[in-house]
Design a protein that fits this description.
- There is one protein chain.
- This protein has a two-stranded antiparallel sheet with strand order 1-2.
- The chain starts with a strand and ends in an 11-residue tail after the last helix.
- Helix 1 packs across helix 3.
- It has a single domain, classed as Arc Repressor Mutant, subunit A (Orthogonal Bundle), CATH 1.10.10.1100.
- By secondary structure, it is mainly alpha-helical.
- The protein has 3 helices and 2 strands, in the order E-E-H-H-H.
- The longest helix is centred in the last third of the chain and has 22 residues.
- Bound molecules: FE2/S2 (inorganic) cluster.
- The site of FE2/S2 (inorganic) cluster has 12 residues, from loops.
Length: 74
């Protein structure tokens, strides 16, 4: 699906950049040029980035070992 019509950028291309290491809207904008003209795609691009971050965080916590120890205080 096209997210940015001005630059021909799809949701897949944004996700590909996130998988390749982009961490923020600025990263994605710098790499692809999303929202660099009329700007009407910015909210949708940010939503895709936030969705990706939420999924990444969920995978991180799923993979964390369940030790029962939260923190050790000396
Ligand atoms: S639709 Fe993305 S800059 Fe215009």
């Amino acid at each position: 699906m096209f997210v940015c019509l001005c630059n021909g950028i799809t949701d897949s291309s944004i996700r590909r950049e996130l998988q390749a290491g982009a961490r923020s809207f600025s990263d994605v904008q710098q790499r692809l040029g999303v929202a660099s003209q009329c700007g009407s795609c910015e909210l949708q691009a940010r939503a895709i980035i936030n969705e990706h971050r939420a999924l990444d965080a969920a995978h991180f916590y799923d993979a964390a070992p369940a030790t029962g120890v939260v923190a050790a205080v000396a």
